Amino acid sequence: MKLASCGALLALAAAALSSSALAENAKWRHAVLEPKSDAGIILMAAKKGFLEKLGLDVEIVGLKNELLAQRAAVSGDIDSFEGSPPYAAISTGTNLKVVACYWTATPYHIFAKESVKSIQDMRGKTIAIAAPGSAPDMVARAVLDFYKVPTDEVKFANVGSDADRYRAVAQGVVDATVVSGEYTPIAGRDGLHSIAKASDALPEYDRLCITMNERSLTARRPDAVKFLAGEMLGMRYALANRAETVALTHEITGAKPDDPRPGWVFDDVLAQKSVDPSMPLSIDRLRAMQDLMVRSGALTKPAVVEKMVDLKLREEAAALAGR
User: Fold this and answer.
1) What is the model's pTM?
2) What percent of the chain has pLDDT over 90?
């Protein structure tokens, strides 16, 4: 496995690759969001060699947000990425297919400074999100809708990554933000607290799905199957080996030895059964989530859910990984 930076990805050719070029390229390029306290689970397949054992040369690319990953996949610069299902992109006719979902619950919380006691207090205040259309943006709007707080009474600020948004609240730049629950064990230290769990408002939210470039999926299907099978094997291993997974997270993120977040995330995943190594792909859950986003205003043009998925790939991958 080779790790690549965002800069390395942007240095790739911007033009879309043809199917024949993709077929000749032995390296499978997969994008993930910037590693956080879940990195040991997400990257175990690549770091532990499960993908290599299946004969696949994989390059992992770290990106700031899901929209960059979507654009890179559409252009052909990467073969796959993980994040929320790209409803908005697919609804415009882009060449993307959702093939699996494995983080089947949202870990997001709304963290706020102490003066903001509840979601109802967000009227007239500013909440930090990532880019419009990203998961934090959609989650913020859906949670506000769930608690009957009109979005036109709340100000939205695009403040980048989880770490950037968390700092913005801690430093008083904004009033609240959407970030992973991994900040729970340190929020009190920084004068912040959780005023809402996204899972209450979004019970059918699939936080991390794997989406593939349709050209790669067609021209390199055996490699696509190997990639998904390797991910399944890596996640099985990660969930069965707490100490090794937490240690890998510390290694990837550079977290200090006494940072409680990697351990907290692992234990929360097991307690909530948030990660499913079988990578289920449910049309009903995708449709329910899309309907909610349309109602909350996070999505204006719905996609045809049946056309945005490849249901057979995970079956092929599961057979290779061994049920």
Assistant:
1) 0.83
2) 72
